[in-house]
Amino acid sequence: MMNKTWWKECVVYQIYPRSFADSNGDGIGDLRGITAKLDYLKRLGVDVIWLSPVYRSPNDDNGYDISDYQDIMTEFGTLADMDALIAGMHARGLKLMMDLVVNHTSDEHPWFRQARASRDNPYHDYFIWREPRDGREPNNWEAAFSGSAWEWNEATGEYFLHMFSKKQPDLNWENPRVRREVFDMMHWWFQRGVDGFRMDVINMISKPADLPDAPIIRPGFLQPGFGLVTNGPRLLEYLAEMKRDVLSRYDCITVGEAPLVTVRQGAEITNEETGSLNMLFEFERMDLDSVGGHMNGKWAYKPLDLRDLKTTLSRWQTALHGNGWNSNYLSNHDQPRSVSRFGDDGADRVVSAKMLGTFNHLLQGTPYVYQGEEIGMTNVPFESIDECRDIESLNIYREFVEHQGLTPEQALAPIRVKGRDNARTPMQWSAASQAGFTTGTPWIRVNPNYTAINVEQAVADPDSVFNYYRKLIRLRRENPVFVYGSYHLIVPEHAEIYAFTRTLDAERLLVVLNFSKNSPTFTAPAELSYSGAELLIANYPVETGDVRRFALRPFEARVYRLKV
Ligand code: TEU
Ligand code: CA
Q: Is residue 268 in contact with ligand 1, taking CB distance under 6 Å?
């Protein structure tokens, strides 16, 4: 029998602090701004808040480059503001999940400042250094934000590794002192009241000893090196050590961000008896609308084939059932807005946002809602690269224009579709100036559709995406089958309908979702036996009728409780 635990039954809401709520008019979201919105989150019904990094940082990668793990970024506030936020959350029964970014630090962190000074410095071995190879970079790895993954350090006559920006040097987890530092820092935050951690690229912390060249998949010197640093030789050992030394001491929630993780590794890491983390963010679902193996990776867009999504998610759903635990998400601060990507952000914005919410809350696993998703916020019609702020987009734009000869418009097109800034524009609180996010000038432009899409309008409208999410979250809280029911895909071959059942003892749910603008007919498979069906939630009014066969409207969603 599957263990029942709070972190399986909860709903997590992700806050991107820079864009959530600004309390002092400097155009940058902050901790006091979040504290002022806790009643809104309580009203939505979520249980856990995942806070993207709020630590001291020079913001080369918006906080994912940390210079002090035990202090707060100046723009965001102070440790006292942090304590007030934690107290405000706990007073409302909300839990806090911090972002743990320990694959790398900022190059302005004292550890790295010391390390790069001399090879004899006691902190030198906190990072990954290599001699030049034939006077050049030690291998052909490309970093995630373009350019080599190696940076020259004159003072010691070596290169240091950075899988992300050159201001994000990778930590050397082989060094037990590094692991000790990280574990002590986690204890420090747990003792300050936090309830768990989302762990940034945690499956990249163990590098292959010889750091070999990456396979050549495109012309030129640099090749994607991610595949060589994910799921490394000592990863499970380090995670087990973290569980033994830290996580097992607290009633906490953990989720590991794990690019390129496989289902087998996912089951191993999240196995409740022998694993180390509660759940993972897998990326397979996020790679289905880009041309596989293309030299431009995610920027090479191709329309999603729903059958690919069904195949991928069904593998994770069935493989982890009773053996691990899934996380479910359709967007975050690194991905474009879900309604624009998987739904329709035009005439069918509201129904498709509700359908996607139904999908994300009815799959087995803990659902993650990204700020603004609960009101159906959309991608942004960026007019020029000057409106963008994200290092990943700015670097790839330069790559497209300077090295691939694209025109500015051609280079901007894939950024409009897949760029991370789509998720990072200010939260739209009202139709007032700057969407009620700030009384100043926001650090990044507000999406012009804020006059129509905002919290004030959504809360007041009983038929809004927001109130539909409230009902979904309440249903999930009141019905264990939503959480623990086993997943079974039906009509697998259908190109527009994603339908499945969830079964727990004698209780069964039938979930039918139309992922298209068209009106396909759903026909229940013969083997699906049931005597009666009670409609629990739908994003259109539904006449009672034959549940075994019915036509679906664009992006229609229905959830029935079946009497078996
Ligand atoms: O993201 C890791 C990661 O895989 C992303 O870079 C992803 O590949 C890409 O953005 C999708 O295109 C984590 C954080 O979530 C991200 O914000 C940071 O930039 C990155 O790590 C480095 O810390
Ligand atoms: Ca501010």
A: no
Mean pLDDT of the region 210-215: 95
Q: Do residues 154 and 142 touch, judged by C-beta distance below 8 A?
A: no
Per-residue pLDDT of 117-162, as tens digits, reads 999 999 999 999 999 999 999 999 999 999 999 999 999 999 999 9
Confidence of residue 543 (pLDDT cuts 50, 70, 90): confident
Statement: residue 245 has pLDDT above 60: yes
- The Cβ of residue 217 has, within 10 Å, a number of other Cβ atoms equal to 11
Return d(Cα 338, Cα 353) in angstroms, integer.
8
- The 10s digit of each residue's pLDDT in 326-356 is 999 999 999 999 999 999 999 999 999 999 9
Check whether 1 has a pLDDT greater than 60.
no
| Rounded CA separation 136/152 (Å) | 9
DSSP code at position 122? T
Q: Whose CA is nearest to atom 16 of ligand 1?
A: 334
Token couple for 237: 């050992």
Mean pLDDT, range 265-288, rounded to an integer: 97
Residues 6+ apart with CB under 8 A from 257: 198, 199, 200, 201, 202, 203, 280, 281
pLDDT at position 9: 98
Closest atom of ligand 1 relative to the 391 alpha carbon: 19
Q: Per the structure block, which two tokens stand in for 362?
A: 């009815």
pLDDT tens digits, residue range 78-87? 999 999 999 9
Cα–Cα distance measured from residue 96 to residue 139, given in angstroms and rounded to the nearest whole number: 40
Protein residue whose Cα sits closest to atom 10 of ligand 1: 334
Query: What residues does 533 pair with on adjacent strands?
Result: 562
Please identify which residue in the block is written with the tokens 């607290």. 250
Output the pLDDT for position 218. 85
Q: Is 89 in the pocket of ligand 1 (CB under 6 A)?
A: no
466 lines ligand 1 (CB under 6 A): no
Return the sign of the alpha-carbon dihedral for residues 246, 248, 254, 256: positive
Give one DSSP letter per residue of 225-237, joined into a string: -HHHHTT-TTHHH
Q: State in Å: Cα 488 to ligand 2 middle.
A: 46
Task: Please say if the pLDDT value at position 415 is more than 60.
Answer: yes
Tell me the C-alpha distance between 468 and 481, whole Å.
19
Question: Coil, strand, or helix at residue 312?
Answer: helix
Q: Considering only CA atoms, give the Rg of the chain.
A: 23
509 CA → ligand 1 middle, Å: 35
Q: How many angstroms separate the CA atoms of 353 and 16, rounded?
A: 20
Whole-angstrom distance, CA of residue 337 vs CA of residue 379: 5
CA of 158 to the centre of ligand 2 (A): 40
Question: Does the pLDDT at position 489 exceed 70?
Answer: yes
φ, ψ (nearest 5 deg) of residue 112: -80, -35
Strand (E) or helix (H) holding 557: strand 557-563
Ligand 1 touching residue 298 (CB < 6 A): yes
Q: What is the pTM of this model?
A: 0.98
